[in-house]
Design brief:
With 372 residues, the protein is mainly alpha-helical. It is built from 14 helices and eleven strands. α9 packs antiparallel against α10.
Length: 372
């Protein structure tokens, strides 16, 4: 029995089978875009009245900008998914046979939305309460548990395909068992924080999320046309298209000169969405390829993220009013006060010329923050 109904389309001398749910999903995603375009400007006054605002340090006038608009985009995204959920199962509803209903696919949608909703809640709490860094590590892990439970009950495949360069030594694949679930949990934590780390410039968070989302959509389409794991990649598309539509509307108002700030809500929402499609779509390792800039930035930021080097809460670029340009932000510390790992990181980064630093006569070092 086919879960996704499709019809044939003839184009450029060839034929393509387009699932009807995919067409409905595109329509809903387009609607999400236009709803966002109209709703976001109307919500600005409400956020300012609730004191959800921040100062735009990238502008000379330092205006007050409404913040945490990721929650608006998140709500539009979730409502789009709510409206779409019945569509892939319409054929099963009409049959009336509960035993043949694809509960395993239905549960994937529910688990995906549950994890995404949890991260929207965490992000909004962070915007309002300024959570500690340790909270941003274990809460995404807890939010990923529904995904891991569904993966265990539906698939429970913990075998990874090894690169061809090592296959002659250890074989084509290896079963890593429980470690695969540890990896997926760490993937969820990384994705939700990676976009949050690479931020601070008007439109940067939204733009990089759109690039990743677009890459995933193109990858899914190529795999579907190739006939590989069609249902898994269709599931990914059904989540990524509404996300892209809602996010594209947000980008219109968040790009420079920014009219709204996205807040941590959007960063966590985006990261968990990418983790969801990667885990339940069975291409979690491929998703990491689309995070290469974020991975580089994470590795570069490790000395400050793990407090080997003093790290300010915000590492925003500093605006120079004279030139109207942005300069890299700086941190200050004494090398003598660092622990062994801090001193080692400082010496390695200094001699590798990965940081620009100046040392005063009294031993105070001024250098750029460890972020690209």
């Amino acid at each position: 029995m086919t879960l996704f109904k499709s019809f044939e389309v003839h184009l450029f001398g060839g034929s393509f089978h387009l699932p009807l749910p995919l067409i409905v999903n595109v329509i809903i995603s387009t609607g999400a875009y236009f709803v966002g375009l109209n709703l976001i400007p109307k919500m600005k006054a409400m956020f300012l009245a609730a004191n959800l605002s921040g100062t735009d340090m990238n502008k000379v006038s330092k205006p007050k900008i409404p913040e945490a608009f990721g929650v608006v985009t998140g709500c539009i995204f979730l409502i789009s998914l709510f409206l779409f959920i019945p569509v892939p199962f319409v054929g099963n509803f009409s049959n009336g046979d509960k035993e043949e209903f694809p509960h395993h696919k239905f549960v994937e949608f529910i688990a995906a939305m549950l994890s995404i909703c949890c991260m929207i809640l965490l992000g909004f709490a962070d915007d309002v309460l300024n959570l500690r860094w340790r909270d941003k590590l274990y809460l995404p892990t807890i939010a990923s548990l529904p995904l891991l439970m569904v993966y265990y009950t539906n698939f429970n495949s913990t075998t990874i395909i090894l690169p061809k360069i090592v296959q002659s030594f250890v074989g084509t694949s290896i079963d890593i068992g429980f470690l695969y679930y540890v990896y997926m949990g760490m993937l969820a934590v990384f994705c939700t924080n990676a976009i949050n780390i690479l931020a601070g410039i008007n439109g940067l968070e939204v733009c990089q999320s759109l690039v990743i989302a677009g890459s995933i959509i193109v990858f899914n389409l190529v795999e579907i046309l190739s006939g590989h794991c069609r249902e898994a990649y269709e599931f990914s598309l059904y989540i990524m298209l509404p996300y892209a539509g809602a996010t594209l509307a947000l980008w219109k108002y968040n790009r420079y000169p920014s009219q709204v700030f996205v807040g941590d809500t959007f960063n966590y929402l985006s990261g968990m969405t990418f983790a969801v499609v990667g885990i339940l779509g069975h291409f979690s390792k491929t998703v990491l390829l689309f995070f290469i800039p974020q991975i580089i930035n994470f590795i570069y930021s490790v000395p400050q993220l793990f407090r080997f080097i003093p790290c300010p809460r915000h590492r925003l670029p500093k605006h120079d009013p004279k030139s109207d340009l942005l300069n890299y932000s700086k941190t200050q510390f004494r090398v003598s006060e660092l622990n062994i790992l801090g001193k080692l990181c400082y010496m390695v980064f200094k001699h590798a010329r990965l940081i620009r630093c100046e040392e005063s006569e009294d031993g105070v070092v001024t250098c750029n923050n460890f972020t690209i």
